[in-house]
Write a structure and sequence with these properties.
By secondary structure, the chain is of the alpha+beta class. It is built from two helices and three strands. Strand 2 and strand 3 form a beta hairpin.
Length: about 80
């Protein structure tokens, strides 16, 4: 999906973004915001550049209200 996004664009340099989950060596899972840029036409780079930013804490804070709402809903559904 990310590759097709980058290849399908005509602007230079072409970029694509995604949020992915990767396993850490300690066995936990981490979320990353990924930006991939095609710099293969740039003579100083001649390749693809990937920038990853750890967004695990943001994903956890986004999920917390959803979990609380779900627990609240089940409390009344089961009553």
């Amino acid at each position: 999906m990310l590759r097709s996004t980058i290849i399908g664009r005509t602007r230079k340099p072409a970029t694509g973004t995604a949020e992915i989950r990767l396993a850490h060596r300690d066995g936990s899972w981490r979320w990353f915001d990924v930006i991939v840029t095609d710099l293969s036409k740039d003579p100083s780079v001649e390749g693809w550049v990937a920038n990853l930013r750890d967004i695990t804490e943001r994903k956890a804070s986004e999920a917390a209200p959803n979990a609380a709402q779900e627990a609240f809903r089940h409390a009344f559904d089961d009553a």
